[in-house]
Prior knowledge:
Elements: E1 6-17, E2 20-32, E3 37-41, H1 48-55, E4 62-68, E5 79-82, H2 94-104, H3 109-122, H4 138-150, E6 156-160, H5 168-185, E7 188-192, H6 196-202, E8 205-210, E9 215-221, H7 234-256
Parallel strand pairs: 3-7, 3-8, 5-6, 6-7
Antiparallel strand pairs: 1-2, 1-4, 8-9
Bound molecules: adenosine-5'-triphosphate.
Amino acid sequence: xxxxxxxxxxxxxxxxxxxxxxxxxxxxxxxxxxxxxxxxxxxxxxxxxxxxxxxxxxxxxxxxxxxxxxxxxxxxxxxxxxxxxxxxxxxxxxxxxxxxxxxxxxxxxxxxxxxxxxxxxxxxxxxxxxxxxxxxxxxxxxxxxxxxxxxxxxxxxxxxxxxxxxxxxxxxxxxxxxxxxxxxxxxxxxxxxxxxxxxxxxxxxxxxxxxxxxxxxxxxxxxxxxxxxxxxxxxxxxxxxxxxxxxxxxxxxxxxx
Length: 257
Ligand SMILES: Nc1ncnc2c1ncn2[C@@H]1O[C@H](COP(=O)(O)OP(=O)(O)OP(=O)(O)O)[C@@H](O)[C@H]1O
């Protein structure tokens, strides 16, 4: 039997609220090989963020088996997470924002300086090092958020709708940027999106979720992922169109269930 880097079996998550039990996830099975990019797409409320929070070690109140490289999730460790609002501290400069995680890990100042300078250089962010988040564009902020995650040298990068507040062109630029980083690091990435084009462009494996309660409805192996030259071309648009049809079908099933 194959050992996956990311392996989820029969995951169930319940929330208790005001005496009511909400089944956010039930019978979720998901697997992803090391160094692959997975994308989760599905309707609002189907449990995408809940799934990511379990993987990030932020929610340990679940049943089933969740393993990252054979071990249950823990906060920090070898997993980094990037959120929709970038999660930057507004009162700290770009440099200080990126440094933060390493300081928490008690690295020496010399180690920190080398690691951060090297990474900012690699990501083309050196000229922004002294600026504050409010002095950056949305795309620049997201690059800094990516730098802050990468400086910790994670083996798994979790992204919860990371590009949703960006305009269409900036969004494409940062998708390309993420792809370049992946080419270099071969990180395992699991990204949540509501955007079909983004799912097709980035996801080597696309997990389509359904609600009521949340589960993985379908897994799609996507041979078009990462092919910048195919963006907007017939093949790419056809893939988006079939994913859209599938999602529409599922959405209406969920609505009438
Ligand atoms: N802390 C909580 N307490 C109670 N119910 C919750 C809590 N967090 C989430 N839920 C419920 O669990 C279900 C899944 O929520 P979740 O946020 O994971 O979905 P999602 O797919 O990420 O949604 P969206 O796409 O809108 O962000 C929803 O029904 C939601 O109302």
